[in-house]
């Protein structure tokens, strides 16, 4: 009977030990990956527009401050009050996430993320949140010029976002109620309250209406997978023309008393 040589057995043992060590390191990295990795990935994905500051904890359970910025090194940066807390949990088909943001949502926001062969899908649980309109200045032009104030109430119903390469498709509905909106470009405070309704489907659409106010806004848009084409108009209520003239000159192309707005 042949007896395995000591050197052969020893070599096999070392290989198994090395494999076990590699698996252990990989599991440790997965479980204890620092929160700053998520912060770095999010900043890169958003081109610096969305940043997690002083991230603590792990990739799976962490906290951080939230900053909206006009980009890496951008001049405009707006911080949300308080901190964001997050919890990520692996699923057989992706991950589930809970976002705890006391400043802006009475209940945590939840979504499921699923990788696709050519992209990513995010399915949001129905929910409501309230955001300061001032945060829009962090996204650069034209918001940093308008410097809006007021409240943005976001409601989501069966909202699903699907990325396929650079193409984005939407299902479900999202409604944004902008309440008591004012701008540094007008002495009227507030100028009005508005509603933006986004409807998903084969050709997602957007509808802008005025709920009340001196600045009258209306318009509609269509999403083609990469950009939103929006056509609308703005005008002043009778007696408010002088107070809103400067703003109307900036937000669109003047056509008599109206200002025509075209985006995309």
TrEMBL record:
Top-level taxon of origin: Bacteria
Chief location bin: membrane
Keywords: Cell inner membrane, Cell membrane, Membrane, Protein transport, Transmembrane, Transmembrane helix, Transport
Subcellular location: Cell inner membrane
Transmembrane segments: 14-35
InterPro entries: T2SS_protein-GspN (IPR022792)
Family: Belongs to the GSP N family.
Protein name in UniProt: Type II secretion system protein N
Gene from which the chain derives: gspN
